[in-house]
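Saturday, quiet lab. Running sequence design on the structure tokens for the scaffold JK sent over.
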């Protein structure tokens, strides 16, 4: 399960998905766009309908086990990851869930809703970020109580850091729509050519 705003979907996201597909044999790879991420309430994302369209267009050329889960978008409000995991487990109690997230999320993971339940429901796959490597994972694990440490399951994806920044992409898209659009897959470029929600014109 790969959650995020995908605002916009970019080549860094694609590199993560490619790495997961190469390293694991998952039955399903779920792209989980948020309606409005709880930890990013200060940043209003582009319309969920646009982000969903980009993802679905992009997935037309992806492996058949990849699909969009629009559960959080369908709620129409900010929601918590643990509630989404509960929903997925209730759909199929035999699911073993791996949750993909940036390693820098370790900096605020303790603030996530129902953390003990979250640890119980999934294994974290951490995407390397600059300054957030294996030592950060060790430090985070050591910061947990003994009981929480026993529950916490996490490992790093074996990939290099990808230097694509969503904030910079949005700023560039607000100013112009040059072709080709750097940093996004072709499917997203095609969607942006039809509608650019980041434009300030």
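Result came back. Writing it out in full:
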């Amino acid at each position: 399960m790969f959650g995020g705003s995908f605002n916009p979907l970019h080549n860094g996201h694609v590199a993560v998905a490619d790495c997961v597909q190469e390293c694991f044999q998952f039955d399903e790879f779920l792209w989980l766009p948020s309606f409005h991420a709880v930890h990013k309430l200060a940043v209003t994302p582009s319309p969920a309908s646009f982000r969903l369209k980009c993802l679905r267009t992009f997935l037309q050329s992806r492996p058949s086990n990849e699909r969009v889960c629009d559960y959080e978008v369908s709620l129409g409000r900010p929601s918590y990851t643990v509630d989404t995991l509960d929903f997925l487990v209730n759909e199929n109690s035999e699911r073993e869930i791996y949750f993909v997230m940036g390693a820098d999320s370790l900096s605020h993971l303790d603030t996530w809703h129902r953390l003990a339940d979250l640890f119980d429901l999934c294994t974290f796959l951490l995407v390397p970020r600059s300054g957030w490597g294996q030592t950060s994972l060790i430090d985070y694990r050591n910061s947990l109580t003994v009981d929480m440490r026993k529950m916490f399951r996490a490992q790093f994806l074996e990939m290099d850091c990808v230097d694509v920044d969503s904030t910079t992409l949005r700023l560039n898209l607000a100013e112009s729509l040059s072709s080709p659009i750097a940093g996004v897959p072709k499917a997203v470029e095609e969607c942006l050519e039809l509608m650019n929600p980041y434009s300030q014109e």
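Notes for JK: The CA atoms of residues 89 and 95 lie 6 Å apart. The chain has nine helices and six strands. Ask whether to fix the surface positions before the next round.
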